[in-house]
Structure to design on (512 residues):
């Protein structure tokens, strides 16, 4: 098992060895987000004298942890389709759980690189220190990773089912939930019906937790606990969805039609 | 000893039957040609044997193990190459073979990769990106990948389709050597009937999802009273069946 997981982690990491574009992508887009929203909130802070900049920058950095984790798992099947390698991969003895684990590890590496880069930039540009989150940073980071993997599994299943036609889904799925999960504003800013809807997403509780830490300094363990339980439910749901989709795709022969290079 | 046993295998895509109750077996060390025109069901059959596509009815046994029940045990001991599938274009030759050797849990993966490259006379720099190689080079590399784990059963889908005659001949020699030295069973699809005559111990002709002829290439040709296996192929492609010589004489 370890040999196969290592093989797939290497398979994805080898690409970064020689692609400056891919390395830049890990930092470039998140940095652009950070610059735009950072300066907007700096301006708003001057006008309104609020500490919104803290919440905004924290939201940007933490959102990118979730996004990178989701992308690593969600884009892996798509990457194999792009290079015509899906069939070779699925006739190898790698189990789906090993494939998922390897992409999750790649997601962890990507999220760590992005979060570190953004953390440094946020400190240099806006004097926002991620370390102010203290010990809470560990569960916040971990839960976002796990939820990113869960959403990535869902995305992967859609790509297995619909092939390259579903490419855009790999990018847009995270943004479908972004307005409702309190990334840049608290849940209380949403209409009542949407507030209830927002509760089903683990990251709502993570971002609310982040605001609580930045506001009062204490770790909101209750929010973290709820988020943990919800993440488990989401992982079970998307894992089952992925497994069933793989069975369905095999029965319809979609795996082979999507695989020819 | 039979390496592959297929019994009453059925597959439908929607309402269209792709494979209609075929049965066959391949002995250890046998090279079996799975032949037929486009849409005959040969690639679907190979994909079912590899567990890529699940079958609706019937059973598949590979190396004594049920497929797909023992999917991963089987896949560890078999391999596959096709002219229509390539290794990741964004990896180098060395990286790609290393990754696949690790996936198959091959001991000393770097050494084994060099061995298969030498066997297939791939004398390209290991740092070459696969995406920059010609179609023929990619196909040869894919065959290298298929040999990494010294498979007991090797599935090849038109492996020589994009190779020049010289390299195609070398590939055939390697396949013969594999069979002779390791007793590898090879299940093989091809549209080159001369190649089939040279290589295959036995051939199965499929048309519209059914087996229409089976035997050694010579037996099939003689039974049909046609001059060549090419003519057999064309007859099957046009008529969807192959009447044996006795039927023809009666008509």
């Amino acid at each position: 098992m370890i040999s196969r997981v290592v093989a797939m982690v290497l398979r994805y990491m080898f690409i970064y060895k020689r692609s400056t574009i891919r390395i830049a992508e890990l930092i470039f887009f998140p940095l652009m987000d950070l610059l735009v929203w950072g300066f907007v909130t700096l301006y708003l802070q001057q006008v309104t004298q609020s500490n919104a900049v803290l919440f905004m920058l924290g939201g940007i950095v933490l959102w990118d942890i979730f996004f990178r984790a989701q992308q690593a798992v969600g884009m892996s099947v798509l990457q194999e389709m792009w290079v015509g390698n899906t069939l070779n991969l699925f006739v190898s003895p790698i189990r789906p759980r090993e494939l998922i684990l390897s992409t999750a590890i790649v997601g962890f590496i990507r999220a760590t690189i992005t979060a570190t880069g953004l953390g440094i930039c946020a400190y240099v540009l806006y004097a926002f220190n991620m370390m102010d989150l203290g010990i809470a940073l560990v569960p916040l980071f971990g839960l976002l990773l796990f939820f990113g993997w869960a959403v990535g599994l869902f995305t992967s299943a859609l790509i297995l089912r619909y092939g390259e036609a579903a490419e855009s889904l790999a990018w847009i799925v995270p943004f479908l939930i972004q307005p409702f999960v309190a990334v840049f504003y608290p849940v209380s800013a949403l209409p009542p019906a949407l507030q209830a809807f927002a509760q089903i997403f683990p990251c709502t509780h993570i971002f609310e937790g982040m605001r609580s830490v930045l506001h009062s300094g204490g770790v909101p363990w209750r929010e973290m606990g709820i988020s943990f339980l919800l993440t488990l439910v989401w992982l079970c749901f998307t894992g089952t969805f992925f497994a069933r989709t793989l069975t369905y795709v095999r029965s319809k022969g979609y795996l082979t039609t999507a695989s020819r290079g | 000893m039979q390496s592959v046993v297929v019994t009453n295998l059925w597959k439908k895509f929607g309402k269209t039957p792709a494979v209609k109750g075929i049965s066959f077996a391949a002995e250890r060390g046998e090279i079996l040609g799975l032949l037929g025109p486009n849409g005959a069901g040969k690639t679907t059959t190979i994909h079912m044997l590899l567990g890529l596509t699940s079958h609706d009815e019937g059973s598949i046994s590979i190396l004594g193990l049920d497929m797909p029940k023992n999917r991963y045990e089987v896949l560890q001991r078999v391999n596959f190459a096709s002219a229509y599938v390539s290794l990741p274009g964004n990896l180098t030759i060395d990286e790609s073979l290393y990754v696949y050797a690790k996936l198959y849990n091959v001991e000393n993966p770097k050494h084994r990769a060099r061995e298969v490259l030498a066997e297939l006379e791939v004398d390209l720099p290991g740092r070459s990106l696969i995406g920059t190689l010609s179609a023929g080079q990619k196909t040869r590399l894919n065959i290298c990948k298929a040999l990494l784990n010294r498979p007991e059963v090797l599935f090849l889908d038109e492996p020589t389709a994009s190779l020049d005659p010289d390299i195609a001949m070398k590939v055939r020699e390697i396949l013969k050597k594999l069979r002779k030295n390791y007793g590898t069973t090879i299940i093989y699809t091809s549209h080159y009937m001369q190649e089939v005559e040279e290589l295959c111990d036995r051939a199965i002709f499929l048309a519209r999802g059914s087996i229409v002829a089976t035997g050694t290439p010579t037996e099939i040709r003689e039974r049909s009273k046609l001059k060549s296996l090419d003519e057999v192929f064309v007859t099957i492609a046009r008529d969807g069946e192959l009447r044996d010589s006795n039927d023809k004489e009666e008509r």
